[in-house]
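Hi,

Apologies if this is the wrong queue. I'm a grad student, and the batch job for GntR family transcriptional regulator from Microbulbifer bruguierae produced an output file that my downstream script rejects. I'm not sure whether the problem is my script or the file. Here is the sequence I used:
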Amino acid sequence: MTNIPEYSPRAMSTIDKLISPRQRKALDPSSHSPLYYQLYSLLKNLILNGTLANGALMPTEQQLSEAFDVSRITAKRAMDELAAENLVERRRGKGSHVIFKYTPGPVKAPLVGMLQEIESMARQTEVRLLELDKLKPPAEVREEFALDAGDTALRMVRVRSRDGEPFGYYDSWTVGLQKKPTARQLTSTPRLEIFRTQGLNITHVKQTLSAVSAPEDVAAALNIKPGTPLLSMVRRSYDAKEQLRDLMHVLYNPEHFQYQMDLTIDEI
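Support response: The file is valid. Your script probably expects a header line. Output copied below for reference.
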């Protein structure tokens, strides 16, 4: 079992809602990139995607050092890089605050999906759970759910396979569940069934399709080369009151997955 670095209660209160245990273990001393740069890159992404909003107080160097099991010098250099790019402002005695202002990108038109097909595929494929944590979502996700700045949501990261061949990388945020599902449930039961069991009934789904190049972490999970073209699908699931309950981004390897629609004339 891999140990997660221990850190003080003060650090936990600041960092736990921002960074998952998997991310805290992501820094690799054997990588060609220095540790300070890996930490800087992780924090920069949290700022650019709005997880750390304009004006937010950054974790201290001591908190970062304890949370990521790195030296204070490494943590300081990562923060110095953020300050050099005008992403944070450092004030003696007042800490470091985010000065970058996140601006959401345009929303693309959705494509209506079929709930029955979603659940059927879940039953016919295998799933490997990479992450299951209650975290503070990025600003774009908070805005979609209409969450307050301090609210958390359930994040799930999974890889789906068919006959041992991984074909899809699923990264989702969910609100409205009465309790956190177990890892065992998520690897044996379709999420829609888990939702219904807890009284969360999804009535329709909207989907947006596009194409992207595989990032390194996704490429590793799908056993493909970084930069491989992938089918990207953003799926928004709503309850009967038209409230968004689940937001999922799926990346499919087109060599092992194709999205097909069969519509009658009344549906066109």
